[in-house]
């Protein structure tokens, strides 16, 4: 038996939005609870990371000169940092798994198609996760290389510069590849080529997307590195986790919707108009030619 699909909204074709900007308002107006469900799933995927980071940060509180010599403390902190980064890279696979389902649900929203949330979430995992995971492995590999540079050149400008290059070169391309995988079925190499084609064709907007993704993380990092919460680390942990929970529930789903709508307009321009006319301006009202 085929799965029945139901739309959250009952309206005629002529009432579809006529622009991507109008589509964003329409999606939030009629499907806020579905987007909130996506945010909830994203939060659940981040929960292991939050729990892991809390335990790691609490453990770090006891790493002081009171218990270790200066030489031993450096080694203990380095081991702690390696464990933290390795654990985060592994646990982020759970986030990638959930994102593969979330992307399909949000794609159907912007395409103005009916949604059965949990069915479509599972189908998104089935359709997208393999390539999402492989793309993530590439990014994680380059991140690991930049981490080694930062550890080797500890205290030098080389480490932060290498991290910045990694983020600028690979994170926007990862976002573009996920948006591409979510719609088209092709080979892995084609996803990579397409991601950089659209990245450099829209480099300003791509870098804006990078900033929208990483600015909360940068703020947390700057607070931490500058010891603004000096001697009250528990308050820092609490504030950081509350911020990340709010971001996962409301902010990051909005960012995905924005760039999904933006990418659809670019896919229409460079791909759909000639190769996939059935999804050209899908989800938008198109007056019939007389």
Question: Mind explaining what this structure looks like?
Answer:
With 290 residues, this protein is mainly α. It has one domain (18-272). Helices cover 77% and strands 0% of the residues. It contains 7 helices and no strands. Helix 1 packs antiparallel against helix 2. The longest helix has 43 residues, at 233-275. It is elongated. Mean pLDDT is 84; it is low at 6-11 and 226-232.
Short description:
With 290 residues, this protein is mainly α. It contains seven helices and no strands. The chain is elongated, with a radius of gyration of 21 Å.
Give me some keywords for this one:
mainly alpha
- Integer-rounded radius of gyration: 21 Å
What spatial form do the alpha-carbon principal axes imply? Answer: elongated
Oligomer: single chain
Share of residues in helices: over 70%
Number of helices: 7
Which secondary-structure class do the elements indicate? Answer: mainly alpha
* Total discrete domains: 1
Strand content: under 5%
Mean pLDDT: 84
Order of helices and strands: HHHHHHH
Largest sheet: none
Contiguous low-pLDDT stretches (5 residues minimum) are 6-11, 226-232
The total of beta strands comes to 0
Termini separation: 40 Å
């Amino acid at each position: 038996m085929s799965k029945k699909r139901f739309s959250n909204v009952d309206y005629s074709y002529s009432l579809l939005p006529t622009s991507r900007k109008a589509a964003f308002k329409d999606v939030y107006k009629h499907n806020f609870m579905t987007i909130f469900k996506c945010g909830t799933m994203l939060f659940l995927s981040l929960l292991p990371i939050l729990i892991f980071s809390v335990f790691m940060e609490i453990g770090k509180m006891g790493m002081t000169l009171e218990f270790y010599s200066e030489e031993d403390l450096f080694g203990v902190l380095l081991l702690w940092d390696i464990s933290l980064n390795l654990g985060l890279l592994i646990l982020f696979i759970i986030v990638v798994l959930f994102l593969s389902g979330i992307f399909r649900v949000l794609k159907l929203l912007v395409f103005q198609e009916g949604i059965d949330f949990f069915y479509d979430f599972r189908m998104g995992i089935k359709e997208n996760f393999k390539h999402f995971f492989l793309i993530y492995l590439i990014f994680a590999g380059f991140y690991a290389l930049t981490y080694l540079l930062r550890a080797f050149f500890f205290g030098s400008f080389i480490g932060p510069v290498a991290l910045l290059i990694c983020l600028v070169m690979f994170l926007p391309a990862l976002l573009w590849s996920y948006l591409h995988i979510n719609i088209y079925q092709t080979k892995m190499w084609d996803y990579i080529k397409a991601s950089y084609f659209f990245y450099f064709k829209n480099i300003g907007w791509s870098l804006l997307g990078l900033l929208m993704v990483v600015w909360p993380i940068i703020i947390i990092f700057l607070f931490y590195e500058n010891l603004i919460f000096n001697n009250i680390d528990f308050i820092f942990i609490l504030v950081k986790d509350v911020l990340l929970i709010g971001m996962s529930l409301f902010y990051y789903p909005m960012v995905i919707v924005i760039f999904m709508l933006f990418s659809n307009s670019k896919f229409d321009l460079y791909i759909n108009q000639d190769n996939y006319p059935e999804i050209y301006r899908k989800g938008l009202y198109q007056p019939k030619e007389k």
